[in-house]
Amino acid sequence: METLEQIKARVEAAIPGAKLKVLTNDSPCAQHSLLLDPAHAVDVARFLRDDPKLRLDYVSNMAGVDWPDAVIKTKIKKRVEKDGQDVDVEETIESLRSGYLEAVYHVYSMALKHGPVILRLRTEDRLDRISVPSLTPVWRGAEFQEREAYDLYGIQFTGHPDLRRILMWDEFTDYPMRKDYVEPDDYEYEPTPHDDVVEKARRHYAPEAKP
Amino acid sequence: MSAVLDHPASPQGAEPSITPPQASGTPVFAVTPRAREDGGIGSDLLEVSMGPQHPSTHGVFRMDVVLDGEVVVKLKPVFGYLHRNHEKIAEGTSYLASMPYTDRLDYFCSMTNNWAYALTVERLAGLAVPERAEYLRVILAELTRLQNHASLCGFLLQDMGAMGTPLMYAFREREKIIDLFEAISGARMMCNFMRFGGCRCDAPRGWLQQAARVVDAYPAFLDEFETLLNENEIIMARTQGVGKVSAEQATGASLTGPILRASGVNYDVRKVDRYGIYDRFEFRVPLGDHGDTYDRYMMRVLESRESIRILQQALRDIPEGPIIDPKSKLRGFKPPVGECYGRIEAPKGELGFYLISDGSTNPFRYHVRPPSLINLTILEDMCVGHSVADSVIILGSIDIVLGEVDR
Q1: How confident is the model over B179-222, as pLDDT tens digits?
Q2: Segments making up each domain of chain B, as ranges
Q3: How far apart are CA A141 and CA B251, in angstroms?
Q4: pLDDT tens digits for B122-175?
Q5: Which of B17, B223, B229, B252 has its CA 20 to 30 A from that of A29?
Q6: Residue B342 and residue B349: Cα distance in Å, rounded?
Q7: What number is the ipTM of this complex?
Q8: Cross-chain residue pair B83–A26, CB shorter than 8 Å
Q9: What's the pTM?
Q10: How many CB pairs under 8 A join A and B?
Q11: Which listed CATH number (1.10.10.10, 3.20.20.70, 3.40.50.300, 1.10.645.10) goes with B86-406?
Q12: Which letter does DSSP use for residue B12 in this model?
């Protein structure tokens, strides 16, 4: 199979305006991925599916990921003049990465038996600009897993044919797989709460509410 | 009384910081009466909720079906009755502590679940597996496949109305394999046997010989099963041409496992990825012609025969040696930063794990790709146009386990 750089070059030549980015993965398995821009994601997906050299007809896995705001520490080497000599100094730069939600697709080809090509889509933030285009119109196999990512992470897939909650019940309002999700004090109603349930509940009330 | 005691289960004091998107509680479909085109009396459509306590749904699974007389017009599967958010639990605990939890996904096939998870973590951390452990894994996975396919055939025939007998025959054989699991791991179903970089313990004395005896006696059971059932008139009438899936439909909907190959698509992860040591064994991938329920049943029988071939080769060739890499670390295990998707051919289809490591002891993201859930994508297409009774056996032939569908 072609490398991701080759795929990227061919996609960008075939679809005007499409911008892809290769993200590297330092793990020993070295599964690198392609970051798609949401505006052209569906076209790119269709190209990858129909291209005779790739024929990525099978989306195996689709997962949502929650990346909360985080401080990223990057180490850079700097050459500093010290006492008339050049010395290498390692410096840590802290930068704030604003959070986003991510949809990851692992796509294989059943016809040509190669893969995976890993595609990623990112939302703009975690609060209200949380929509990405759905790839279900291209790969029907993503239908339930996109519903699951909507259900557990709250990613809005625009263009999904049937975007409803899949595992949680319809009246549920939060997104339990998010990193900042606070679980309820009690899962089953207890008429006389005791011990740890009371303790958990107490934490959620202001101090003056205590008797 | 304090506010705390007044509202024991009230929502948290802190307002959720996210604005909920549009409401999702929309009805699945609206049932409208239909008029016949020739002016005759049109019959109303009837919406029936099959499950979650229906015995034919193999657990707590619900199908919302719209019926025209007895024929299915629309069908929507409803999940979540067994949801316990396995992924969130796994993110809150160490890598190793999720291993027993994977047993509870597809509780018929805990050995293959263990293997899929161990394989992914090994790739994520770059661990090697000793030869003997690889052989043991293949042996245990293929034994799992045998017992899963046997019980599937039994349950399928039970759904068709062959009460008891085929299921008991299948369970008699399954019991022998489950005994082997108990001897090697201490548990009949929740085996928790694989570890990162090998297996938990070696096979006890005489286990391999006993496994060889079970495997050698297995073809006789398959022969008996096939003589009884393959050309049975009722089975042929009930299954042939029912729930057809074309190869294009199957690939598009990401079907995997025996039900994909019943539609004639040659895709077996054991052959494609050659994970573990599957490249050392000689076996064929059986393929179906029609993609109907009969082919899906036959696929299980034929795959069992190929599994027996793999087992005989593995039991013949298994070397002596260590069972786990002595350098592999179980406690305080921290894989390097990165992510990995690993998959194996589980009896029900492609079982995958997607892990993201942030360098700590717990996974940052832990995702299961459940074959049972994704194989249900196409359930509606399979069932529309067939009767309710057929939808039961179509569901039976897909082979779902709700522990894995709902996670």
Answers
A1: 999 999 988 889 889 888 888 888 898 999 999 999 999 999 88
A2: 86-406
A3: 8
A4: 988 888 889 999 999 999 999 999 999 998 888 888 888 878 888 888 899 899
A5: B252
A6: 14
A7: 0.83
A8: no
A9: 0.85
A10: 175
A11: 1.10.645.10
A12: P
